[in-house]
Amino acid sequence: MSYTKVENQILVKKVQDYYSKHLENCISYLEEINTVKEVSEKLKNYKLARNEFKLLEPIVAFADKENYKSLNAPNILKVEEEDATDIKIRSPFGFQVIEELLHEETAETINVDEIVKITANRLRLIAANNRLYLKKHHILWLLRDQIARVALVGITGFDSPVLEQSLSEAKTTYETLLFIINTYKSEFSKDNLYTDFVNELQTAQKMLQEGDFEFFNRYDFIKNHTHKELELLAKTSEDWKVEFPLTMAFNNNITSLFSKETFNVDFFNDYHQLEKATSEEKIALGKKLFNDKNLSKDGVMSCATCHIKTKAFTDGLATFPKQLRNTPTVSYAAYQQTFFHDGRAGSLEGQIVGVVENRNEFHTNLENLTEIVKKDSVYTKSFANLYGKVTDFNIRNAMANYIRSLGDFSSKFDKNINNKENTLTTSEINGFNLFMGKAKCATCHFPPVFNGTVPPNFTETEVESIGVPNTQETGLDDDLGAYNIFKTEERKYFFKTSTVRNVSKTAPYMHNGVYETLEQVVDFYNEGGGQGLGYEVSNQTLPSDKLNLSEKEIKDLIAFMEALTDE
Predict the structure, then answer these.
(1) Which residues of the chain have a pLDDT value below 50?
(2) Is the alpha carbon torsion for 230, 234, 240, 246 positive or negative?
(3) Collapsing DSSP states into helix, strand and coil, what is residue 412?
(4) Which top CATH class is 278-404?
(5) Which among 501, 479, 494, 483 has a CA at the least distance from the CA of 539?
(6) Nearest Cα to 406, choosing from 478, 505, 515?
(7) Nearest-CA neighbor of 74 among 168, 18, 156, 188?
(8) Sign of the CA dihedral 179, 180, 185, 190?
(9) Which in 37, 119, 145, 179 has the greatest CB count within 10 A?
(10) Helix, strand, coil percentages, rounded to 5, for the chain
């Protein structure tokens, strides 16, 4: 099948026209909000504008990622900390903010009008610069990202915090996916593939339309629809003879969201430009270093001293002796953008520096570390073969590559959602659906890693303020978390969202190890975090409303989390 530049331009023009039309509609409905006085009328226009925005979502989220994030951001302050001299505090705007303001008991019309103006102006900026440059591989990425976005974020209620109309909004975004598939119908050499794709998207739409937010079977939707759509997309890539110029966070042609093959681990590696950034040989070398006590000053501590394999690479202690915080798991540590509980390191290689120089850990420095390794002839030979020579960076890179290999998506849950076995209990499935819905866990612990790295782009790992109590449970813990990095007031009590994978092995929980059981953790969230317990937590990002989970729902939720334990 020939595919000329002119033919591509014709197809892109159709997508462009669709995009421009819905941008203008969205702006028009938004501006209507400020022309009426009654909150009910404002809400009516908001819903119309929101519907148009959801029709835009697959395209604008791909073509203008940063503006999309701003327009769809939660109603919390945005703190950007480049360094101590470049700290920006940005007030939120966009659809979530408008939605919450319109549902406050005493809706401040002035506040609503101002946020509406800012939001409409941002959309006008996009409309003025909305020229799309799309090749066939871009179309496939766009489709893949939206399919994943719906499954991993959309159906969780992440961006419809009050109305909880996530299912109907997901259905709306599928309208655009169908439009794009229909627009590119001529590119399919196999008519049955095109027909199967359209039928599947329509079937998924029907399930979303008929679903109830609280009782929607998200497990069934992902297992039998999202994954089928990814399979059809992979077949489409082959049918269109697409050659991808590079690989983003998701591997090209994925067929599952819950597999080691899902991710390009080097995407999360700041040093992926190195030749053979991650290799089996480097992983083996890194494992040896990870377990070597000789690397510490007194020869009594290795990384494995605190990160014990049988405890999912934690230590089972509230806090290790002389340490301030609980030892986090390094399983699945590859899939995040910041490290340590407060997110102060930007890479695994950087995180290792902190361990080496900590007087209560390795208590040495990078120069001494390098000299110790150089004195070992076996190490010297390995580094010569794999890196050319021993340097402190190469040592850290090898250790980091081993850590990046930890976490293989081999849990009972993964096997079941990938159709490798059929052993999940009703309780475990209910627990997943609660995690992804009513309990709102997945609005911070994003699947598939169930950590704070936001899909489907995975470029940001969130920090949250949830109001963790002190170890006596008499008040708020006094650890200021991310505040300590740059002394930013708005970052007090903020900590990175950790992974829930292998959580059955990583007790005790929270940054200070205050909770010994998952039941205690769920109860904390069920009460609305620190604010729900009556503590003063400024800028708490966790909603303080009670979740009202029943005893059975709590048991189901824990059963699901325990099903995330790797072999």
Answers:
(1) 1-2
(2) positive
(3) helix
(4) mainly alpha
(5) 494
(6) 505
(7) 156
(8) negative
(9) 119
(10) 50, 5, 40
| Separation CA 73–CA 159 (nearest Å) | 8
Residues 409-441 pLDDT 10s:
999 999 999 999 999 999 999 999 999 999 999
Arithmetic mean of pLDDT over the chain: 94
Decide: 483 and 472 in contact? Cβ < 8 Å. Answer: no
Tell me the DSSP string of 87-106.
EEEE---SHHHHHHHHTSTT
Give alpha helix (H) positions in 129-258.
Answer: 136-152, 166-183, 191-210, 218-221, 227-239
Residue partners of 90: CB distance under 8 A and separation at least 6? 77, 78, 79, 80
* Structure token digits, residue 319: 């806090």
Cα–Cα distance measured from residue 30 to residue 364, given in angstroms and rounded to the nearest whole number = 59
Residues 442 and 435 sit within 8 Å (Cβ to Cβ): yes
Task: Write out pLDDT tens, residues 272-320.
Answer: 555 556 789 999 999 999 999 999 999 999 999 999 999 999 999 999 9
Q: Taking Cα atoms as reference points, which of 459, 542, 451 lies closest to residue 75?
A: 542
Please calculate the CA angle 220-223-227 and round it to the nearest 5 degrees: 140
Single-letter amino acid code for the residue at 295? L
Cα-based angle 138, 243, 228 (whole degrees, multiple of 5): 70
Using alpha carbons only, give the angle 158, 160, 162 rounded to the nearest 5 degrees.
120
What is the structure's pLDDT at 505?
A: 98
Q: Token pair 């073509």 is at which residue?
A: 63
CA–CA separation, 24 and 449 (whole Å): 37
Contact (CB, 8 A) for 312 and 506? yes
What confidence score (pLDDT) does residue 80 get?
85
User: How many CB atoms neighbour CB 510 within 10 A?
Assistant: 21
The alpha carbons of the chain give a radius of gyration, in whole angstroms, of 25
Closest CA to 386 of 266, 286, 302, 268: 286
Residue pLDDT, tens place only, 189-202: 999 999 999 999 99
Quote the tokens at residue 114: 């101002």
DSSP states of 438-457 as a string?
TT-GGGTSBTTTTBSBPTTT
Short-list 242, 248, 334, CA closest to 283: 334
Residue with tokens 């966070």, as numbered in its chain: 249
What type of residue sits at position 333?
Answer: A
Query: 170: which 2 tokens?
Result: 């997901």
Question: Helix (H, G, I), strand (E, B), or coil: what is residue 194?
Answer: helix
What residues have CB less than 8 Å from 466, skipping those under 6 apart?
Answer: 495, 525, 529, 530, 537, 540, 541, 542
DSSP assignments along 3-52, one per residue: --HHHHHHHHHHHHHHHHHHHHHHHHHHHHHTT--SHHHHHHHHHHHHHH
Tell me the pTM. Answer: 0.95
CATH 1.10.760.10 fits 431-562, yes or no: yes
